[in-house]
């Protein structure tokens, strides 16, 4: 389900009867991490530059044709049709282990903000159009309490290629409201952080917000409402993702990168389009 609240490794905090529940909602890609997890992970998992380039190219063409981002998000998950959920999850753990070795993968200023809120007793919810295979290791590392994300359909232990809810735009706010309602949290006491205009519904459904980077739509709202401003990620939308699509002959293959600690080279070919299409 898209608003899954199973523990992700951090456990539940603030459970005392006299303590009100506060939740801090964090977008993930280019907010907590410096890359687009869906594509960085897809390239890593496929371990085939040509196959990745074909998949990325198909999504890029759809974005250029004006296909709604909810549909391109769904199209992304068709790349996993027939794959074993457990195998993809294990690949996600290997992907995270590699990415953690790369300087800048975790956006330290935003992570410090998350730690500050945890120390104040806030529960943390990660909110992303990505999915658990690559998000669970991040959530466990950060001690997040809830995960609101895309949930690909699984039948008999294998992905079908379909996804129940595209966790994009207004869907993020809907899932956040549902979690606050279930948890007894007052929206005006909760906060949210994001980097892209598509995060605006999430940021405006709570009492406080933080803007990461310089998205003009979010910057305007931050100035108007006095939201927190945090710097953008160092490589925002151009780090550790899509290297095979950029120039597979110029970089090590994804299969070799699974066993190497050398981070992939930046990719700028169509990453911004892919980001816009699927987040």
From TrEMBL:
Signal sequence annotation: none
High-level lineage: Bacteria, Bacillati, Actinomycetota, Actinomycetes, Kitasatosporales
This protein's name: HAD-IB family hydrolase
InterPro entries recorded: HAD-like_SerB, HAD-like_sf, HAD_hydro_SerB1, HAD_sf
Molecular-function GO terms, alphabetical: hydrolase activity; metal ion binding
The keyword Nucleotide-binding is annotated on this UniProt entry: no
Gene3D superfamilies: HAD superfamily/HAD-like, SG protein - dephosphorylation function
Residue stretches of biased makeup (Low complexity): 239-262
Entry keyword set: Hydrolase, Magnesium, Metal-binding
Residue ranges of the region described as Disordered: 239-279
Keyword Hydrolase: yes
Organism in which the protein naturally occurs: Streptomyces flaveus
Family the entry assigns: Belongs to the HAD-like hydrolase superfamily. SerB family.
């Amino acid at each position: 389900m898209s608003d899954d609240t199973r523990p992700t490794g951090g456990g539940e905090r603030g459970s005392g009867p006299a303590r009100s529940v506060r939740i801090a909602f964090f977008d993930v890609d280019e907010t907590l991490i410096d890359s687009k997890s869906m594509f960085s992970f897809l390239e890593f998992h496929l371990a085939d530059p040509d196959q990745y380039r074909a998949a990325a190219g198909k999504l890029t063409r759809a974005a250029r044709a004006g296909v709604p981002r909810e549909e391109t998000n769904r199209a992304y998950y068709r790349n996993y049709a027939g794959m074993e959920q457990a195998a993809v999850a294990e690949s996600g753990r290997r992907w995270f282990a590699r990415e953690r070795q790369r300087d800048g993968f975790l956006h330290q200023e935003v992570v410090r903000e998350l730690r500050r809120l945890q120390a104040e007793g806030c529960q943390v919810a990660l909110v992303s159009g990505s999915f658990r295979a690559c998000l669970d290791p991040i959530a466990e590392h950060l001690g997040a309490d809830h995960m609101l994300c895309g949930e690909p359909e699984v039948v008999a232990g294998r992905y079908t290629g379909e996804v129940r809810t595209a966790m994009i735009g207004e869907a993020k706010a809907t899932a956040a409201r549902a979690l606050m309602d279930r948890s007894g949290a007052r929206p005006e006491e909760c906060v949210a952080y994001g980097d892209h205009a598509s995060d605006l519904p999430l940021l405006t459904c709570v009492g406080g917000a933080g803007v990461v980077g310089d998205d003009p739509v979010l910057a305007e709202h931050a100035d108007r409402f006095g939201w927190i401003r945090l710097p953008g990620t160092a490589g925002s939308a151009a780090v550790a993702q899509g290297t095979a699509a950029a120039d597979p002959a110029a970089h090590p293959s994804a299969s070799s990168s699974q066993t190497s600690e050398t981070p992939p080279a930046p990719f700028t070919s169509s990453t911004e389009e892919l980001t816009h299409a699927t987040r």
